[in-house]
Design a protein that fits this description.
With about 375 residues, the chain is of the alpha+beta class. It has helices spanning about 15-25, 45-50, 60-70, 100-110, 125-130, 135-150, 150-175, 185-205, 225-260, 270-290, 295-305, 305-320, 320-335, 345-365; strands at about 5, 10-15, 35, 45, 75, 85, 90, 95-100.
Length: about 375
Amino acid sequence: MNWYYAAGGQQQGPVDDAQLDALASSGQINAETLVWHEGLPNWQPLRQARPGAASTGLPPQMGAVAGAIASTGDVVCAECGKTFTRDNAIQYGTAWVCAACKPVFLQKLREGSPLSTAGLSSIREQELLAREYRIEIGDCLERGWKVFSNNAGLIIGTSLVVLLVVAGCWVISMLMGFVIPFANFLLPLFLTGPLVGGYLWFCLRLARGEPAILGDAFAGFSKCGVQLMLSSLIQGLMNFACILPLAIVGGIMGVSAAMNKGGPPQINPGLIAVFGILVMACVAALVYLNILWTHSLLLVIDKGYKFWPAMQLSRKLVVNRWWMTFLFLFVAGIISGLGAMACLVGLLVTVPLYYFMRVFLYDDNFRDLAQSA
């Protein structure tokens, strides 16, 4: 049976019986939440339309109190089983965790505990988009540094190999550009997805407490390789489309200056103003789009999404908190750039830290998302 429910003043769903019960047991909806399915004459409270749903799927020690708290909107901590108001608990996936249990809960996630023991279950896109998009800069940085510290040798060695491969690919593409037109432009577009996606996959496995090896950093060529290539290709072409007007106006300015024979090059002030406006507009468009696609490569390699649905899902989640996502990546980027101050050697520490911050941001929001069909 397909159910619809009201959340945030909007209709959500459809979800099936099991998913509705999971929403109730996690505290995302309660006994007073209005629900509807085909056959009901009108919207009804959950307690009336599906009695007992609030306690479905809860562990035994939590089920006894679920009915008592459903009408108040309180939630049950997935670790200690105690009840708290939502202001005093934090939502992780479909689970709620109190402040006291948060360190234990996060430790389970770091150690790669099965999702069921960490209070999580598989959810669909509609449920993911209906809940809060979590962005915790300090927490992701702290966890990223801890993973790096515990695996420094493996991470530095893998990062160095990946860096050498990237440099080799860049040299090859430049050389091919002398033989095949536009090869130096197109080849990096195809290779960026598998290379970055593979390295993110390597970092994600370590972030989840799973064993990782050097080969995982190149899994992008064997695991969803075509979709990763298409993802980076399409994103690259869209980026090119953003800067194309800038290139056209720049070319017109160059021609205008060259046509002024017998005197110093002169450019129409109007063209200069247009060029300046285009520079700002193009930079803004590039930043905006690439922030929206932050999670697309990880959705492809981790959840098996096709490149376009991955880009769309990432966009739908990020757009509601775009500025916070921008701030997160800006801070992570600043940290990454600090490695250049140590004669570039520090990049072997700060660049991996940047990617670990990214994968923790992703994992906090997408870990319990069901695999793409």
